[in-house]
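#onboarding

Welcome to the new folks! Below is a worked example of what a typical request in this channel looks like: someone posts a single protein sequence, and someone else replies with the predicted structure as tokens. Don't worry about understanding the tokens yet, we'll cover that in week two.

Example request:
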Amino acid sequence: MPALQSADGIDQALSPLFETLISGSASGIAPKEGGFNIEGLATDGKSLLIGLRSPVANGKAWILRLANPAAIVADVDEKPQITVKAQVDLGDGRGIRAMTESDDGWIIVGGPINDPPPSFGLFQCDKGPTAKSIDFTFAGGTRPEGIASQDSNVLMVSDDGSVLRNGVECKSESPANQYFRATSVPENQLVVTD
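Example response:
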């Protein structure tokens, strides 16, 4: 956590959050209430990009850049080199729920930092970085939690654990009756609207 706290571009808006994480205080902020929550991972070809579901600061979601992922896996004494890659406005106070590299930057699933109500959006983030809305409607009740580029398609996976089937949440069903949904969309059909 000290490497993250001292990262270039981390401002005072996040300092109290880091203090509660470092102290291990039981009164720390829960992830779904604005506490520290990583949900997006992607690459820029050399580095690991880390998308935060929360916190959202000044209406913007954070993308952090870990410059030396291979080195810290190979050597436990290697210090992480973390900087702020971007702060992006995904509208409605959304954080990053998933992200994947695309030809023009990254495709990001933006969603609420807490659970209800679902308010998801799909965004193209160029390497500038500027986030632009993609004209895409998620199927009713979809809670996108994963995204990946496959050839010229984008695969989105929904967490359906809280979806009711016959009055029972999916996650409470027997393993044989649990399910998730996945949607594959040709990347050239994802049209930027702004």
